[in-house]
C-alpha cells in the first residue's frame, strides 16, 4: 500500500505518456462501441436511445462527478464526462453540466441519438427537448414514492377513518405501484393511452373490467378479486385524485416508453472497484481510473452465462429473482495499454536520440532510401521505423507480463 504523489504523477503519468495512453485506448473503446451500434439495422432506421446518470465520488459535497452515456441496445459506454469542483463548484447541478458535455460528445462520434433516458431531472428534460430528442424518465424513480403518496388516504387514526383516509384503500398502496408498472409496459408508447390506463385502475377496483386487458385475470371466468372493492364515492374520488398526482400521470409524455437506467446503475456499482468512495483521488488519477473502468465495462458487458440460479428473498417472499453465473472476465484492454505505452516511449526515445545525432549524420547525394527511412552512409544502419520496433516491443511485453 502507498500513496501516488505529485512527483510520480508528473514523471509517469505525464512525462512518460501513461495517462495519455490510457485516455487514447479508452477513446478507441468508446468509438468501437459507437461503430457497433451504427452497424445495427435499427440505427439507420430509427436512431439509438441512450441512458445517462450521475455518479458522485462521495456521499455529500462531492469533489468529482461523472455522467456516463450508455447505448440502449448494446449497453456499452459510448461517451463519458467528468467535472471536478474546480471546474464546477456546485455538486448538485454538476449532473446537468456533465450531460451538456457528454451528449454533444457522443453526437460528434456519429451516433444518431433520438431519445435520452435518465433520472427525474427537469433541467435535463428541457435540454434534451431543446436538442430535438425524446425525453424519458426512469421507471423506478417514477414509482418509488407511490406508496408514500397514497399513505395519507390508506391509513390513519380511528377518529379520521372514512373521512381523510378510507378502509377500502388500506390495501391499495403497494398494488398501485405494480399497476403503474404494467400500464407503462403495455401502453404501446402512447402517453394518452397511458393516462387512460392509469385512471382505469380505479374502475378495476370498482368491479368495472370493460377497459381491462383481455389477458388480465379479471377477464377470466370465475375471477375473485383479492383486494377490497371500492364502493364509497369519497374513497373513489380520493383515490382518483391521488392517481392524477403521481409522477407517471403528470409526466406521461416522458414515461410512455417505459425506460429504465438499470445498466448505468450497474456500471456505477462496478466503479467501486476502481474508484472507491472512501478514498479521494487526484483529478488526473480519477480520470485515468475512470477510463480503465470504461474499458473493463465495454469488454465484459453482457457476458455469456454458464448457469442460472433462482432465489427468493425472505423479506419479499412474493418476489422471485434469477441470478446468472457469468463466464470469467477478460482483460485484453491491459495488453492494449501496455503495447501502446511501450511503443510510444520507445518511439519518443528514438526521436530524442535522432535529434542528438542529427548534427553527426551525413547524407550524401546518393544516400540510400528504404521505405521512406534514411540510411546512415557510415554505419549502414537504419533509423528505426515502426516495423523495426516490433521485435523490441515484443521483448518488452514479454518482460512485463
Brief characterization of the structure:
The chain contains 16 helices and ten strands.
Structure description:
- This protein has 401 residues and is of the alpha+beta class.
- The protein contains 16 helices and ten strands.
- The protein has helices spanning 6-15, 18-38, 41-46, 94-108, 122-130, 139-143, 146-154, 173-186, 191-206, 233-244, 247-250, 252-255, 262-274, 283-300, 332-357, 386-400; strands at residues 48-52, 55-56, 64-71, 77-84, 113-118, 134-137, 305-313, 316-326, 369-370, 373-374.
- The strands form three sheets. Strands 1, 2, 3, 4, 5 and 6 form a six-stranded mixed β-sheet that branches.
- Strand 9 (369-370) and strand 10 (373-374) form a beta hairpin.
- The longest helix is centred in the C-terminal third of the chain and has 26 residues, at 332-357.
- The protein is elongated, with a radius of gyration of 29 Å.
- Mean pLDDT is 85; it is low at 362-384.
